[in-house]
Amino acid sequence: MKNITDSFVSLGHWPSAGSFGLNTDILATNPINLSVVIGVLIFFGKGVLSDLLDNRKQRILNTIRNSEELRGRAVEQLEKAQARLRKVEMEADQFRVNGYSEIEREKLNLINSTSKTLEQLENYKNETIQFEQQRAINQVRQRVFQQALQGALGTLNSCLNNELHLRTINANIGMFGAMKEITD
């Protein structure tokens, strides 16, 4: 294990690497790397993310409005059903002797069907809202990942020239060769 660690540390001392060196001080390099990555993400993803969130918010609000309209219609139907129920109850008083049990069955069926309709509409509204929220979250995640990847590739491509790229490849090949010799 010590030989592997020594091979990583000695990479900075290779004469073929020129001014290229490996900074093994983790406490000094991680905050810098993190600040660069976070800065790139904020710079490239801020506008896109806010636009996506605004669009999703509008869609969700439209869905909620549509669900509220459906709920309003269901409430109107419920009021009509209740008015019909009151009418049926008045008729029931008139025909109590002949068909009291039949009228009670119709009343219960009417109440049950209206309750089921309201429950179905409420469930549909909740499912629609959940689906739209999940879809919005997935789209935002995908967009942020794409933007971060494009930004990182652009940064890498702009920072590497051919000579530095070839030296990096040669150093990595040498490092993998040394690791292979150690493991063999």
TrEMBL record:
Transmembrane residue ranges: 32-49
- What membrane topology does the annotation report for this chain? Single-pass membrane protein
Q: Which terms under GO biological process does the entry name?
A: proton motive force-driven ATP synthesis
Q: What is its main location?
A: membrane
Q: Which UniProt keywords apply?
A: ATP synthesis, CF(0), Coiled coil, Hydrogen ion transport, Ion transport, Membrane, Plastid, Transmembrane, Transmembrane helix, Transport
Q: Name one Pfam family in it.
A: ATP-synt_B
What's a GO cellular component annotated to this UniProt protein? Answer: proton-transporting ATP synthase complex
Tell me where in or outside the cell this protein is found.
Answer: Membrane
Q: Which InterPro entries does the protein's record reference?
A: ATP_synth_b/b'su_bac/chlpt
User: Molecular function (GO) terms listed?
Assistant: proton transmembrane transporter activity
Coiled-coil regions listed in the entry: 64-98
The answer, when asked if Coiled coil is one of the entry's keywords, is yes
Q: Specify whether Plastid is a keyword of the entry.
A: yes
Free-text function comment from the UniProt entry:
F(1)F(0) ATP synthase produces ATP from ADP in the presence of a proton or sodium gradient. F-type ATPases consist of two structural domains, F(1) containing the extramembraneous catalytic core and F(0) containing the membrane proton channel, linked together by a central stalk and a peripheral stalk. During catalysis, ATP synthesis in the catalytic domain of F(1) is coupled via a rotary mechanism of the central stalk subunits to proton translocation.
Similarity comment: Belongs to the ATPase B chain family.
Q: Per its record, how is this protein called by name? A: ATP synthase CF0 subunit I
UniProt gene name: atpF
